Amino acid sequence: MFIPIDKNGFWVNRSVPTPSLEKVAGLFNQIRGETIVEIGSGLHGESSGNSILTWTQRTKANRIIAVDTEQKRIDEVINATARYSNVETVVGDGINYLKDFKSKIDLLYLDFWVGDREHEFPGTGRAEAYREAYRAAKDKLNSKSLILIDDTDHVDPWKQTHIVYEARTDGFTVLYVGRQTLLMRI
Asked: Is the preceding peptide bond at 157 cis, omega within 30 degrees of 0?
């Protein structure tokens, strides 16, 4: 089957990420995960999946950390998750947060935005930033862990371009690709 691509390189008739988020929540519980770190957060409507709500409602996480550069996005998370004591919010750069993170991560969810530099091939900036995020988190990922990358339904280079190769080299297996890409190491 062919997947039509629009003039900007995105899939036409984009799928919602909800089934993927729910599957990952189940896998997180199966590996007895404790900590989720979400880089790029907020509530963007049903078509975006609202991942933070999936993590709070469908996982047994002890700690769910939402990091975003925009206070507005973090305020959305705070308002939506006020009754959950296991949610922490951080306004700041996700890559720097990962570099300084001192605990182990069972699920790393990457959904942040980075623009391209002027005269750069479209998507290159995202591919490089996501690789940098992976490298910052790499030594903090548990031996049994998951990496979920959102918005991977785009032609390369894009968010998943460099991470998939490096994570596979580090022992992760790709479970699926599409609207989201899931990697797992067990």
From this structure: yes
Q: Where are the alpha helices (DSSP H) in 31-69?
A: 51-58
Q: Which amino acid is at 95?
A: I
Count of other CB atoms within 10 angstroms of residue 120: 12
Residue 19 preceded by cis peptide, ω within 30: no
* Angle at 39 (CA atoms; ends 86, 128), nearest 5 degrees: 160
pTM over 0.85: yes
**Distance between CA 22 and CA 28 in Å, rounded?**
10
Q: Which residues pair with 105 in a beta bridge?
A: 141
Q: Which helix (H) or strand (E) holds 181?
A: strand 180-185
Give the model confidence (pLDDT) of 50-84 as tens digits.
999 999 999 999 999 999 999 999 999 999 999 99
- In the chain, domain spans: 18-185
**pLDDT digit string, tens, across residues 85-123:** 999 999 999 999 999 999 999 999 999 998 888 888 888
Say which CATH superfamily domain 18-185 falls into.
Vaccinia Virus protein VP39 (3.40.50.150)
Structure token pair of residue 154:
């785009």
